[in-house]
Every structure is written in structure tokens, then in C-alpha cells.
Amino acid sequence: MTAGRSAWRYLGLMAGLAACLSAVLVQLVRVQVLNSAKYQQEADSEYVRTISFYGERGAILDRNGYELAMSVPMTTVYADPYQVTNPRAEAAALAGPLAVPEATLQAELSQPSGFVYLAHTIPSSQAAKVQKLLNSGQLPGIYTMQQPKRFHPAGQLALPLLGEVGADGTGLSGLEYKYNSLLEGKPGKLVEDMDPAGGEIPGGLRQYQAPVRGDDLVLTIDEPLQYDAEEALARAIIAAQAQSGMALIMSSKTGDLLAVAELATPSASQPGTLQEPPALPEWFVPETASGTPEHLNQAALERVQPVEAPSASAFTTVYAPGSTEKLVTVSAALQTGAVTPSTLIQVPNTYDVAGTFIHDAWVHPTLDWTPSNIIAHSSDIGTVEIAQRMGLAELLDWVKRFGEGETTDIGFPGESAGLVPFLPSEQSGTTIATVPVGEGIAVTAVQMVDAYNTIANGGVFVPPKLVSGYIGPNGHEHLFGYPRPHRVVSKLVAAEMTQMLEGVVTVGTGQAANLEPYTVAGKTGTALYPKAGGGYHNSYFISSFAGFAPAEDPAVTALVVVVGTHQYGAEASAPVFAMIVRDALQRLGVPPAKHEPPLPGVPLATSIGNAEGEAAGPALPGLSGAPDIRVNSGAATTNQKGRPQGVAGAPLAGGAVATQSLGVGH
Amino acid sequence: MASFEPMADGGVMAEEAAMAEEAAMADQRPGWGIAATKAPAGQPQVPEEAPREPGGAPGRHLRLVPPRQRRRSRRRLGWYGLVVGFLAVCFGLVGLHVLIAEAQFRIDSLQQKASADQARYEKLRLLVAELQAPARIMSVAEGELGLRQPASVTYLPAPKVAGGQASTSSGGQASTPSGSQASTSSGGPAGGTAGTASAVQGETVPAPAGDADWPTVKPYLSGTP
To answer: Would you call B114 an interface residue with chain A, using a CB distance cutoff of 8 Å?
Structure first.
């Protein structure tokens, strides 16, 4: 009996042990085999941590290596509220150094979360104070980490070109967006075992992958010239009471864009929208009865300083080029043989095109003018007559050859191809009268400066460049490839055109751009400003001046566009062109050259005095920082003799009635 | 190794003792001497006596250690060795970890220092970039130093230089290379800031104070046209 009971006990014990062992075995299989990955992951999360290191974003440099945009690691303060023992006390201690209200901090530190940000990328001085508190051990649960912050050491300089970077370090616009893959760094990480206190376990797991810094982008922009261009343009916008403006400087031989200034008044902040003529600003004091010159209140003037345009308008925004487009028309006519430099063209006071009378900017008798005089004095009628000798199809073909109507090889984000009526459905009977004078088309500023640079280069189109290359981690610069230059017009035609453009500056509409002893070849342009609801403003213009210098051996090609002003290109843009080109020539060390004799067979433009009512614009102002800015009264042309006479319905000399105003012919 | 008293009757006894000891050691050192003493399988292993020289007297002060005691003693020695070895390994591991920990602290410290230095470098780089920004330079030049842009710019035709191009400058500063027409009569380098009119007329132009040390700072310029 006893023996049997013992046997049963023994068997029961064995069975119990077997059951326990079986349960253990099952659990072992479940943990170690079936769900091993899950439990391994949970275990790793307990004692293995991964620390990520950001890959520093590369800098954007100008052509001399000056930083225009760069990233710097800054201290970010965060907290693990579960580890915070006294939110109130810690909030009180941190409020001062972080410059954050104590209540806000206390609320953050009391959140049921394991991670909250307290302050992003704080300045070094604040970071030092926080670190001092952390070192004292008074702030359990408070930590710091390094996060990159994008800086622009030169302030707002060239900001529309550079673009913006988001909080996550990704380029959002401009070059930051286009070259994001080059600029952004590759993040690194550290995987290591940690002890319960969060410290690294010596000799434990440690896998380190170093972050890789992004490449530095090298632009063709020259920072000092960019500054000069922006400063001069800002003054021009203020002086002309304009909405916005652009100023481009290009190295003639290489096509490098040395400066791309894009400014706008704060009111004209929306890109692509038409702004109605503004009321005179409060700081404007009109001319007094005694004839005292207008003056400005300096303090008020500073309040309306133009700011960087909201986008890179030189690439993304089109404008009507006005008479600067005549370069394309006349060059094409010379190349095709439609006219020669000595061809005499009869220029009447008014001219009928498809039932629409066009006219020049001033009343004149019928003139026998060569292309030189037509260009120098910016005759719309003469230019239309030249275009008619070619025909519209031929003209549009040459417009395209000069680079208008298609995007550049720069491929700037959002770049516009321009508006050129290539399709028959976009054309009308007056297209042959509008396109030649830059009213029926719209171009980007880069396209127009390219067209002038083609003539500056002896008829060879040099693709514009904005980014020359990048500097890799090894410090070597890698140059980007650009298409090869190609010839558009012959060298002879380019020389003839250059001489005609010189006439614009010496005796024509662009005398304000004269840079004696440098020789300047250029052209004024004034286009009517479009109305938001269709049509054009009669006395509200897009004024521009494009050209190059020295004319004998061009080193610099430039364009200045002042948008939304009552002033002509001769007054609003030509002086600014002179200022920035002079600075550029000096900076590039280009000496004035001995003047070349005029080309044989190319008649020089002749001065016609005040017969045309030409406004040559003010003399070249000095570079004085004093507010020596003249602002016209609301009637934009009070100091310009001979306003455009072609306002629709206005009587013209000889009893003709203009039915359409194509422009102002400047 | 046992030592023996030298005896008068020669080294016979010493030789015998050495041979006996060698035979005993043969058991402990595997690989040699075993073959001579190994008993056939199934029989207790009895060490052979050391061969004696004919006529030699047996060593009276030596006794034969029983095999069991000898094995026990060797086993004990083995255990001691194991314990000592284990402790040595333990101490070695602890020491190694101490060294690793120390190294880790150094690594952490160096990494923090490197990180701090890198951040400092980046901030200094930013500071330099901000200091050399055109707007800041203009602000200092015009606001603090009282410099002004010239109201007008005068351009001067510079004399042709041998083997080079004519150099020009503006703003009332004629950049005439040392030894050029404008400065030869001065007997020394005129630097780059000779007066405008003087440079044209070739008058003697004293070098500005700032350029007085050019010959020493840039000796390669001396004699250069």
C-alpha cells in the first residue's frame, strides 16, 4: 500500500515536472523561435539605441567662394517629461535662458509624452546658459541636441535666386530646390548598447556610420556686384516710384551671370499679379510752387525700401520688352538683307498697319532715316517698316534664334519660356506691328540680356550660366557642362548693330547711360503696363535699358528693368545701367579702350536735338550714399519733353487719329 | 632540481640520483620517457628503478612516493592551477574592461570636444562670412569710418608697360606699377596710390605711409616694371 502510494506520488511528481517542463519548452519555442524577431526588437529597444547625425547641408558660394547661404549646427533643447521631476521648478529655471514664457514651458514639461521640443536652434549665448544649468544637474529630463540652421551671411542678398530651405533641411524654392540632391548631406547614425542610465556600455555594440556633408554649390554670381546692383536698383525703384525692378549683369564672353538683382516694393509682393498704379506715397513731397526740387523724408523713405522679390523674377516673370526688342528686329533684317545700314527708310508721322494707325513718341514730319537713326531715336514706325520687309514668319524665326520663346539651359525652377505668338492662331493683322517693337511679346529678363549678349559677342549666342559647378567632399570643384555657343548673326551684322547701339547712347535716347571714356552700346525700352482687366495703362510703364560695354571689346552685358513707373526707360533705367556697368567694369579691371573708328558704310546716327522731344534722362548720378534721388510728380513726364502722343483717340498732327498705342517708342 | 652533497667516492651517487629523478619525472612529462615505463594494459603501472651502475650503493635517503599520493598531489596542483588561472583570467577581464571603460571615456570626451570644435568652426565661419558681407563693409565704411563714394570718377590712361597691358584705375587713384613713368623719379616704388594728376605728369610722388614697407613686404616687386 505504502509502496504503491509512493509510486503514485512519484509518478505524479514526474508528471507535474513533465508538464512544467513542457510548458517551459512551449514558451521557449514561442519566444525563441516563433516570436523571436518581435522580442528581439523589444529587447533592442530597451538597451540598444540609435543616434542619428544630420548630414550638414552644403553651402552656396559666389564665384569668389563667399558664402551666400550656409548651414550651422545650433542647439535645440528638448525634454523627456517622464523624467522631469518638478515641471514648475524646471520651467522657471529654463524660462530665462530660453526666452520662453514659464507657463508655456511648464505646460510642455507636464505633457504625457516622452519627447517634447522646448526651443529650436537657439543662439549660442542662450545655449551656453542652458548647458550651464544642465551641467549643474538641476534639470533632470532636459536634453540638448545639435540641429542645422540655414543662414544667409550677406542678409537678403540674392535671396530670390537662392530660395528657401524648410525646417527639415529640404530645399523648397530657387537653387536650394533645384540642387537639393547635391546640397543635402547624407545622415549618419550610431547604434550602441546603453545602460539603464542611458550611458554607453563600454565594449558593447557600437556601429557608427559617419554623416556625409553635402556638396557646396558655386554660382557665377559675384557678391560685391550683386550688392551694387541691388543697391542701385533699390534707389531706382524708389526714385521712379516703381513697383519692382530687375538688374542683370552678365560677363559678355562667358555668359556668366554676375548679378541678378530682383527687388519689389512691399506692396507688390504677389508674383505674377498686375499691380494697379499706386497712390503717391505719404513721404512724397511734390514740387513746390517756388520750384524747389522735390525732396524726400529720409526716415519715411527707409520705410518703403524695396525688398527682395518673392521669386526669381528674372527667370520666372515675363515682361514686355518694348523698344529693347528692336535689336532683334534690326539685326534680323540686316542678316537677311532686308535692309542695309545705309538703306533709307521713309518714316511718316503715322503709319497704317491692318487698319490700325501707329505712331512714334513724338510728332515729326516724314523723315528719311537709316536704321541707325531709327534705332538711335527709337522710331516704332521705322522699325515696323523694317520688319515688314522681312515678314512676320521670318521675324518670329529670328526672335526664336535670339533665344526668346524658350527656356534657357539654366533650367531655373519655374522658369518661363516667354510669350511669343509663334502660332498663327495667336497672331493678328497688327502682330507685325507689335512684335518688332516689343509690345506683342513678353520675355524674361534673362532672355533679353542673352539677346544683347549675342551682339556683344560678335553674333555668337553664349548660353547664360548661373551655377558654375559644385565642390565635392574631397574639395575638388566639378564644373557643370553647358551647351556650346552658336552663331546667330554674322560678325559684320553684330558690328553694324553695335555701332547703331552706340548711337543710342551718344546721340539718341540712351544718353543717360553714357560712361565716357568707356563706350557703351545699348537701347532704351518703354512698354505700356498692362491693366489687370485687359488693355494698357497709357502713362504707366515698364521701363528698361539693355546694353554692353566697352563697345569695342565688350566685357559686361547688362539689363535694367523698372516695372510700374511713370518714367521712361531713358530716365528710370539708363542711369542705373550706367552705375552698375561702371562698377562692374571697375571691379573686373577693364580699362577704357581707345575708340575704334566707325565702320565704313554704316552711317552714324545724327542728333535731332529736341525735335523728337526725347527725354535723355538725368545725367549719370554719382555713387554718393546721400539721398540724391529725384522723384517726378504724379504726371510722370513733367520733366520729359514730348509725351507719347498716341493715346487712343487723341488727335495727331495732320488730323489723323490714333486707334492704338503700341508703346512710347523709347 | 635536487642538489647533492659532493662525495668522496666520486659522482656515482649523484649520477644515480639524477637518473632516478629523471625516471620519476618521465611519468610527469608526457611525450618522453613514457615508453620506457609504461606497463602493459590492465596491469598497474610501476615505475622502473633507475638503472644502477655496477658496484654502486643504493641511495638510502630517498624514498619512493606512492603512486596514489603522487597522483593526488598532481591533481591538487592542477586544481590550484585552474583556480589561479581562473582568477587571473577574471582579473584580466576586469582589468581589460577597466581599460576599455577608460578608453571609452576618452573617446566620449574627444568626440564631444571634436563636436564642439566643429560647431565652433562653423560658427566662426559664419561670423567671418557675415563680417565680410558687402552690406556690413559699406555700413562700416560709410557709417563708422566716414568714407564717401566719389561724386565723380576720373579715368586716366596709364602708360604702356613692357610685357604687359596698360593698367588703369579710377576714383582718383592711379595704379601705376613700381618703376613706371609716374614714379621713376621718386627713387622708390610708388605703390599703387600715386596722385591722379601727378601720375599723368610724371611728377615725384611720395609713397603713402601705408606703402612705405612694400620693398620688404613684397621684395619681388622691386625692379619689376
So the answer is: no
